[in-house]
Amino acid sequence: MADSxxxxxxxxxxxxxxxxxxxxxxxxxxxxxxxxxxxxxxxSYADASFTLTxxxxxxxxxxxxxxxxxxxxxxxxxCPDVCPTTMSDILKWRDDTGIGYDGLRTIFVTIDPERDTPxxxxxxxxxxxxxxxxxxxxxxxxxxxKTIFGVLGEKADDASSDTYLMNHTAGVFLIGxxxxxxxxxxxxEASAAAEAKIKRLVxx
Length: 204
Prior knowledge:
39% helix, globular, 7-stranded mixed β-sheet, 5 helices, alpha+beta, two-stranded antiparallel sheet
């Protein structure tokens, strides 16, 4: 009986350890708020050179961040949960604040250029809002923009599978009309707090 109890306790300890490790891995890629700690408010992403392909046609460069405030998110179309949830949250925030597309852009940058073609990206985002700007690029272009924004993104499992998932940073960047970094909205952040940040971003 004593040996059986000890075995059960050992199994419980092992399972707890597994759960802790899994949660730590999830936090590293999903809950970690980009960009890296210490990024100063006002940092200009418009001065950091990158070029991506706009799913609607043409290209999108760092200079195109200027013009109007933006919510910028890095994800991928095959994402089963975080990405569609965040896109839905963004639409809700915009509805609740009454800020239309003319006052606030939404930009979705794929971290999975192998699968996310411009055509696929356009169709995916169009199901949420056809005004969302979808950006993709080749692997080098994607790595460049990920580095600039401090975004983490990597294949989570068998890279040879067509159905692989991606671990990735899930925060939403707040970008000012001048292309400057103005903070982030964390994944799962309360709507009231997110909407307050958006209002400050738009109203200055």
